[in-house]
Amino acid sequence: MLRLAVPNKGSLSDPAITLLKEAGYRTRRSGRELVLVDADNDVELFFLRPRDIAVYVGQGTVHAGITGRDLLLDSGVQALEHLPLGFARSTFRLAAPAGTMSSLADVAGKRVATSYDVLVRGYLEAQGVQATTVHLDGAVESSVHLGVADLIADVVETGTTLRAAGLEVFGEPLLVSEAVLVTTEQFQHEPALATLVRRLEGVLRARSYVLVDYDVPMNLLDQASALTPGIESPTVSPLQNPDWVAVRAMVPRKDMNRVMDELYALGARAILVSSLLACRL
Ligand SMILES: Nc1ncnc2c1ncn2[C@@H]1O[C@H](COP(=O)(O)OP(=O)(O)OP(=O)(O)O)[C@@H](O)[C@H]1O
Ligand SMILES: O=P(O)(O)OC[C@H]1O[C@H](OP(=O)(O)OP(=O)(O)O)[C@H](O)[C@@H]1O
Ligand SMILES: [Mg+2]
Q1: Going by CA atoms, what residue is nearest to atom 6 of ligand 1?
Q2: Are residues 107 and 130 in the same domain?
Q3: Measuring from each residue's beta carbon to the nearest atom of ligand 1, which residues come in under 6 Å?
Q4: Any domain includes 280
Q5: Residue 76 shares a structural domain with residue 182
Q6: Which of 74, 143, 156, 279 could potentially form a cystine with 149 if both were Cys, beta carbons 3.0 to 4.6 Å apart?
Q7: Is 137 found in the same domain as 6?
Q8: Is 233 helix (H, G, I), strand (E, B) or coil?
């Protein structure tokens, strides 16, 4: 039975559980369930703190787990990123009171507040900057105002929290993070893991595409097909009116509106877009 660690709290938890659910796995009924056996799918889910998941994976007590790239690096565990999952996207950045710091050189001799000490110390060391880290569990943005640090290193998504604290990012991002499925060399070729990966990929691909249907005059079919080439080739079906055909193709979700505009301008009509639940391409 595949043993999988799933985040039980924080930004990773809900999207991870939704992804597993869409991939056909049983998920927990209450927020208190710690372990769940999904006998139909031959998987045992362990709901653990996101920060601890890399540790369990590294120890080999679970075959795989879902965590953040930043948390994995901060754990220092030698686990493998098996599949990027596309949610909990963030950057990890240095920030200081607006207008006070502009480059890494300004960090020398200063106090850096962070929840990611290993990651930050590793980065500063690699860059040859000597500074001290102050470990905080969260709400790191308040530390400068409260006088325990001169700058912070933290997760930034929209930047709203930083702005509210009067802080500004500077320098290059330390890293770009997202949720990842992690495993170890020992388990990376497990057939049960390959099944999980195939199913998760099916959902992730389905999320990144939409299905577009439209009718188009026969004489414009080639131009319309060029706008919607699909994966192999668009499906073309006859209509009762011999001058028109119906076309169906997958289109990247991000291109959906542009493609609809261009199809309509070309002369296509009855353009319908639907979401996909899962797919194998
Ligand atoms: N605002 C955010 N937007 C996107 N990703 C985020 C955000 N905050 C944290 N993350 C990501 O979530 C993971 C952090 O997990 P963690 O459980 O600490 O989340 P959290 O939302 O900060 O939870 P907590 O409330 O326990 O602090 C990291 O991979 C981090 O990059
Ligand atoms: O750039 P933003 O969109 O504002 O998001 C980034 C903030 O979100 C997370 O905080 P969280 O809410 O988890 O609080 P925490 O600091 O207690 O972890 C993270 O630690 C940042 O503080
Ligand atoms: Mg947090």
Answers
A1: 88
A2: yes
A3: 9-12, 50, 68, 70-71, 88, 90, 138, 155, 157, 177
A4: no
A5: yes
A6: 143
A7: no
A8: coil
pLDDT tens per residue, range 71-121: 999 999 999 999 999 999 999 999 999 999 999 999 999 999 999 999 999
Which ipTM value was assigned to this complex?
0.95
In this structure, the answer to whether residues 38 and 165 fall within a common structural domain is no
- pLDDT over 70 percentage in the chain: 100
Q: Of all protein residues, whose CA lies closest to atom 8 belonging to ligand 1?
A: 11
Atom from ligand 2 closest to the CA of residue 141: 22
Q: Position 149: which residue type?
A: A
Domain count, the chain: 3
Q: Which residues span the domain enclosing 213?
A: 209-275
Q: What is the mean pLDDT of residues 223-243?
A: 97
Residue 33 confidence class, pLDDT cut points 50, 70, 90 = confident
Distance 190 CA to ligand 3 centre (A): 33
The answer, yes or no, to whether residue 28 has pLDDT greater than 80, is: no
- Atom 3, ligand 1: residue with shortest CA distance: 157
Inter-residue long-range contacts of 234-239, CB under 8 Å, 24+ positions, other chains counted: 239/215
CA–CA distance, 9 with 76 (Å, rounded to integer): 21
Q: How far is CA 242 from the centre of its chain?
A: 46
